[in-house]
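Note to self: keep these together.
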Amino acid sequence: MHLKIFAIGKPKLAFAKAGVEEYAGRLRPWTSFHLDYLKSGTRESESALLLEKSEGLFRVALDERGEQLTSRALAGRISAWEQSGTVKGIAVLIGGADGHTEELRRAVQWQWSLSKLTLQHEMALLFVLEQVYRAYTIKAGTPYHRD
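Structure:
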């Protein structure tokens, strides 16, 4: 299964940029993975671009209104997608500072919330990468995740 993460804007905060680089590097050995930064604009133009770039993929939108999971449940969900045979590629869509449009929310297959808190989008990207990495280490039974 191929994973694509589409994020509006490159991280500008030094610590977030370093964290994204760290977890992107850690994730690469576990799955086919691509991170694509898209140009920021209005919420409407950003959502349209995210939808365009993710055409044909199983779309997951990061949204505070979405479903919250434990790390183990996320690992299970990724396993289910991999084993289904119907999900060939996943696109995680991370909006800009103004979030997603209602049109985008209706067009995705799953809305995922990292927290009930509203997260700064650079931090959300870092957290997504860490949680996906954690999910793969859980699936592999490595000692990274501790219950």
